[in-house]
Design goal:
The protein has 285 residues and is of the alpha+beta class. The chain is built from seven helices and nine strands; from the N terminus they run ββααβββαβαααββαβ. Strands 1-2-3-4-5-6-9-8-7 form a nine-stranded mixed sheet. Strand 5, helix 3 and strand 6 form a beta-alpha-beta unit. The N and C termini lie close together (6 Å).
Amino acid sequence: MQHPRKSVAFDDEPTVRYIESTSRKPRKRPTMAKQLIEIFNGAELTDHMLEEAAQLFNENYGIWGEDPTNPEPVPKPGSPVKLSKNRLRVQCLPEHATCSYVRVTVDDCLAGNAFACRWSYNNTNVCWVTQLVVHRDFRGRGLATGLLNQLRQDDDAIYGLVSSHPAACLAAAKAFGSSINTVAVEFIRDNAEAIMKASPIRYVKDAELRGSLFDREDASGAVSSVNTNFFVDHTEPLKALAWVREKSDWPLGGLLDGHEFLLLIAARRRDRSRSRPFSRPQPSS
């Protein structure tokens, strides 16, 4: 018997602009006639679902950049950043942790997904987004914000994310707060270290805080970031960051090689009157 799945028809306005690489021939943007969002707890994820999630990541996340800490060019700069389904399970679905997975299909194509992990900090519930990926053909249409909105729960008190892409931070600020302009950096400064040390996610627990928010003598240009030694190529994120800084009051500072932005948001009260209804399909026999 299959587990029942919660699903919701989703139709949202674009809220995030993604900076995409250009090509000689413009890519034809697909239509989005039918959208379906499905939400699962970590125990419901099958190997097949993880394989699909890994394929989405491998084909759409990014490429490796130069790693000055590694004398041998492995992985090779310019090669796609990839994860196996087993590595994905370890990173995003740690054992003995409460995890969630939400995905959106557009016309039966996996267009985006997000993983989240929850833990307790100071008698409050922390929801941490461990991965957010949107297929390049469906970017700029609000799918990232829609995915994160569906992760929200009434008992969440704090939302967290580390990402090298400003678009992910914009989507999280929109879904969990109100906008990137209203992010309370003092909240990040006062709580980040303790929240992250309590995490069951190894790369979050071990990440080194970096930026003038945590060290007044830091002159690197970073404000709120973490050193994860994740040397993904920053060409596209830096283009996006330049655009965002022209349009808004970006609070997280610059993006250093091997680093990611750190965003923490105190949960806003959920407006039940505006919550999207969802239906629970009948399990097949």
